[in-house]
Every structure is written in structure tokens, then in C-alpha cells.
Amino acid sequence: MTQLELARGGIISPQMALVAQHEGVEAEAIRQGIAGGTIVIPANTNHSNLAPCGIGQGIRTKVNANIGTSSDFGNIDTELEKLRVAIDSGADTVMDLSTSGDISAIRRGIIASSSIPVGTVPIYQAGIKAIEEYGAIVKMTTDELFTVIEEHARDGVDFITVHCGVTQSAIARLKRQGRVADVVSRGGAFLIGWIVYNERENPLYEYYDRLLEIARQYDVTLSLGDGMRPGSLADATDRAQVEELLVIGELVQRAQQAGVQVMVEGPGHLPLNQIEANVRLEKAICKGAPFYVLGPLVTDVAAGYDHITGAIGGAIAAAAGADFLCYVTPAEHLSLPDPDDVKQGVIASRIAAHAADIAKGVKGAEQWDMKMSVARKKLDWGEQARLSLDPERSGQIHGKHASAGAACSMCGEYCAMALVEEFLGISTPRC
Ligand code: SF4
Is the CB of 416 within 6 Å of ligand 1? Predict the structure, then answer.
């Protein structure tokens, strides 16, 4: 049985109990969230070394790190190193987006080495196989696509991105709309080419029940991908994007009826003033299903710093109710990320997620900051480093220019906190 079926049957699974323990909430609250479709636990029954992680309403905002090879760069050793860096930096999940090398071996290696949930986008491998065999993605058969999906599920992939909402109708709307950046989703682009060439409906939409059967068998969580996501601020929240979301809303309902856990992916490039509306729209149309946003990126002009662009958007989205942030690295739009880019991206998204958790009142979030404030007031540098999102960097920077006294070298002997303590002695921390 899937976590959703167990939850609906009133059963608290070991995975639910562990998630509740990590989140510091009652296991019954997790069960109810899963039963109601507002929380998912991506936990494939074949992922043996997995520490389960909950994603959704009322619990900590989670961060995903994308890793994987491209046609220009990468091998299994580099990807395993990126996995290690992502986990060490605090990522909650990883997605293997490999598109070159032995894709199956890389995926299996990542799953075997990963204690955190692993996601994939099976259409990448299916499309690449079709290119290798027939010279074109458009020649891929429906059976070949589902064979790859089943292989990913059998290998232990915990969640898969499936662009089921890229329908013939959405493509027609996209054409009538006219966009600056057209389509920036790789999976979406593969499917659009296939649909237009074959003059047939998206197989992931037409044979959605077949997809649900596979997902249910292995308890793979569906992540309904946003193939129509805007890749330019100018294209944000347009008719093609919203049409896809309407279709996804129906597919969320069908997945849940079939006992399959499901979440929804969202933009993309969005101006600051459209982020909250996008989150509200998804939550209303998809009945509170967990929302997994890709950034969002709040400007198009920060190449080289898009981990910051994404963190700004991610903080606003998560504070408005998004549950899961896909990181953006400094390499976004420029190159395949290396392990250092992975670290920068994870930390930036974790800052966004935590800032939002304070605003959302997530259990333990505010207390973490309170502990840091007390350590700062005490000039306790060891504790400050320990409480930092990146203890290593915190310690390194503090040690770079040592102070003669107990304070840091920013103000040195004129440390405001030390001076006030000396003259007023009013430090009475509340924890
Ligand atoms: S020296 Fe200045 S920056 Fe450093 S701890 Fe004291 S008040 Fe803070």
C-alpha cells in the first residue's frame, strides 16, 4: 500500500512516525496531511537506505538540489560528489537529471548512495534513447516511454517529474499567446515536439491511468511538471501556463483517488508581485497539494548570481505557502553546476526556506534564531558557528581577522553588545 492508502486507512506508517519525529509534530497530524493530500512522503518501496522526508503544509519547507550529467559534461564520480555535497549542505532531496553517459547506472549509483529522496525526469532518458535508436525524439513510442518510467520506479526513484499537463490544447494556447522565451522546460520541449509531429495527445495525459498504476505499485510520488512554465518575466502567469495548471488540478484529483501521492511543480521566472498570486492559484486549483517551485527567479538579469535571485523568489513563495523549493545555482543559465555551485545553491535555498518558515510559524524555526541571538549576545563564537546554516564558512570568516578581545574584529573593543552589557548589565535572555 502507498503512504496515501495507509493514511486513509487510519494507519500511521513507520515513515509517517519518523517524519513526525523530525518535524516535532504529532504523527497523527502527518497522517491527516497525507490522507488529505496536503503532505507527501516520497518513499519508493525499493529505496532501501532512505530516511523519509515529508513535504507539505504545516511542516518545514524543503529544498531540492538538481544534479546529473549533461551532453557536454559530467560522469558518475562527479555526480556522486555533487550528491555528497548536496546532502552535507542540507538538501532534503536530490533530482538526477542526467542526460548523458550510462544514465541507468548513474541513477542506480545515486539511489544506492542517497539517504534522501531521489527524483528523476524519465522523459529525458526515453527521449535520448529514441534519438540513439531512431535519430529523433518524435519517434519514441508510448510503450518505450512507459518502459523507462517503470525502470525508474523499479530502481527505487522516490518521485518523478511527469509533464502530463502539456496537452494539445495547451500547445494551441501557447501558439496563440506568443511568448518571448517560448518553452524552457526540457521535458516540456521533448513532449511538445512529439505531440506536434505525431499529431497525437501527450501519452502521459492520454495514458495517465497507466502512469498511476506504476506509481501506485512502487509508491512513487508524482511531481506534475510545469512544461509551460515561464522562462522570462515577460511570459509569467500567461494563458498557456494557467491552462496547464487547470489540467494538472484535475490530474491531482485522479492521482489521489487512485491512492497515488502527488505534488505540483510551478514557475519559473516570475516578478515579485506575481509570486503570491501563483501560489494561491495552485493551492486553490490543486486543493492544497504540495507546491514545488523552481526558484522562482525574480529577475532575468542576474546571471552568475541566480542562486540569490532564486532565493529571493523562494522566500516569498514559501512564505505564501509553497512547500518545496528547487534550488538554483550560480551556474543557472550559464553552465552545468559543479560541486561548489551545488553548495551555494543549497545554502541559498535553505536561507529562503528557513526565512519563510519563521513567517509561516513552522515549529522550531523561530527558536533556532532565538538560540543564535543568545549566542551572539554572549559572544559565544563556537555556538554561533554550530547554529549557522554553514558552520564551516561561519568559522572561517570569524577566524580570518581575529580580534584582540572577546568580540569580533568588526567593532573590536567598541563592540556594542559588550559595552551595553558592561554598563547596563541587562542581558536576560528568554531561553
Ligand atoms: S564587535 Fe560588533 S559585529 Fe562583532 S559581535 Fe560585537 S557588536 Fe557584533
Answer: yes
